[in-house]
Amino acid sequence: MKIIKVKDTQMGGKEAFNIVKSDIENGAKVLGLATGSSPITLYNEMTSSDLDFSNMTSVNLDEYVGLKPTNEQSYHYFMNDHLFNKKPFKNSYVPDGSNPDAEAATSAYDKIIEDNPIDLQILGIGRNGHIGFNEPGSPFDGKTRKVGLTESTIEANTRFFEDEKDVPRFAYSMGVGSIMKAKKIILLAYGENKADAIAATVDGPVTEDCPASALQNHPDVTLIIDDAAASKL
Ligand code: GLP
After folding, report:
1. Record's InterPro entries (predicted)?
2. pLDDT given at position 160
């Protein structure tokens, strides 16, 4: 794993943007995208750049079950707001959280991933080492599936909702196996509350107890992290 240490999220966004830009210049056509606060500075760099994404495809990691794209808390809404409304892609895919039929929603998404192999995947990380919504215990060969969120993830995500009880308990998430198929991966992490997860990702055993530790087996991963997130390395 390559580690780029940055002084703050602004610098992290710039470092990540430089990789995205050079990948696109080298022919990348499909970006795997993530939600959460960590990729926001990257999306700001992308929207203020002169890069054109109108020939590209994006495939997002996950979506809450039960939320429509028009719901302000949905990941679909987040992506429209932070990126797609300003820089449209040719096609942008997010799992269909409004489809209550998990089998149909997840198999349709696997087909999308298969048809659009990801050149560059952007990831954040949960405090418990989750990637996408693959919580500890998720299979390393997993495909898209309906997952239950852990208490720590619900608590971490409560900040985006008016009330803890409004946080959805389930999500559709790309699996660890699908994430590992991306040609290149950038993981962004900032702040002290990510330090344990980063230490387990980089130095810990490769175990499903820390989903991000699977990345040790990937040939092209770059971690962009600040000093606080790197403090336990
Ligand atoms: C959610 C998302 C993850 C994201 C994580 C961390 O759980 N499903 O994809 O990495 O939050 O979010 P943040 O970057 O806000 O810390």
Report:
1. Glc/Gal-6P_isomerase (IPR006148), Glucosamine6P_isomerase (IPR004547), Glucosamine6P_isomerase_CS (IPR018321), NagB/RpiA_transferase-like (IPR037171)
2. 86
